[in-house]
Amino acid sequence: MDFELQWLLIGLPVAFVLGWVASRLDQRQWRRDRRDAPRAYFEGLNLLLNEQQDKAIDAFIEAVQHDPDTTELHFALGNLFRRRGEFERSVRVHQHLLSRADLRPADHDRAQHALAQDFAKAGLFDRAEGAWRALLGSAYDSEARLALLSLFERSRDWAQAITTATELEQRDGSSFATRIAHYHCEQALDALAAGDPVLARRCIDEAIRTAPEAPRPPLLAGQFARDTGDDNAALAHWETLAANDPARFALVGADYADVARRLGRGDTARDVLDRAYAQAPLLDTLRARDRLDASPGTAEAPDAATPTEEGVGRRLRHLAAQPSLGAAAEVLAIDTARWHADTRPQLHAAVQRAAAPLQRYRCAACGFMAHHYFWQCPGCQGWDTFPPRPLEQQ
Predict the structure, then answer these.
(1) Residues 169-220: pLDDT tens digits?
(2) What domain range includes position 380?
(3) Is residue 366 part of a domain?
(4) Cα atoms found within 13 Å of the Cα of residue 120, Cβ hemisphere only
(5) Is 185 annotated as a binding residue?
(6) Measured CA distances, 198 to 140, 166, 170, 187, 223 (Å)
(7) Where are the membrane-spanning stretches (predicted)?
């Protein structure tokens, strides 16, 4: 009994000392591992700031190997791969994160968001759609819906685009009316291409109802009405467009003038075109106005190359008010005998104004532009990088 007690008294302190030594060794190893992981992390960060991405990736991989449970390192590594265009490796990193059972819900959504970005950047739009859909209802819900909307636009899936844009309106309170109207217009064009005018008309009407102030629906409605023989409806739609958006009305100004001449409504059309030009002085509107200068009984519109006296006056006034190369070209097409006394200096001023942005030298290395020639580029500090000729002479 005394012998066993003696060994017990000796063994207990020995066991305590051995346990204490083992714990100290474990703590030392733990501290070493903790010290090595931040060192590799900061080394990678320093390399990344110095734009040495290859070495930074190696450092981050080493840090992840030291501490596989560090999610932030995985995210940094995946983002680096994506920025370098190594989408397959980026996908593997983020899929590895998603496979972890101990991942917090916020980090899970973050990894899913990164994975969706990987697929989108890689051009894998079907897989990107699935990844974005997995984020619906999460903290990334709005961003996921916007990304899905972009995917539907890219794939020309207008029905899905309409549904998604409507949901975004209802959830976020933002207005997508004009965008939805574009989708209906695209559906109308697809229906016309498929030979279904009934569906096309329905889509155009829905576009007008969705966004009454948007310019594209009345423009398209006027073209559809003209093509189906309803000239009066065409004029009505285009006059609505002229009142709401005179600049875009110029896109169909010539068509409007031709239909108005055909119906004998030249006087009304002149007023509409004059008001549109006063609000948005564009050459297309000016040319459309010239088409109404012929007498009402004339079948064809006047030749743009030989405008009437009224047309000449409008062109000269346009050059004085809106000096541009387009206006100069219009005036140069007119016989010089019909010019005004100040037309020549106005032409010179218009050409000089248009040519001014091109009368500069551009560095062939970095694209820096200057009005004066430099032997050393102020932008990239390169020598002899400026061609000796300005842009307009290249």
Answers:
(1) 988 878 899 999 999 999 999 999 999 999 999 999 999 999 999 999 999 9
(2) 359-394
(3) yes
(4) 20
(5) no
(6) 40, 24, 30, 12, 15
(7) 6-25
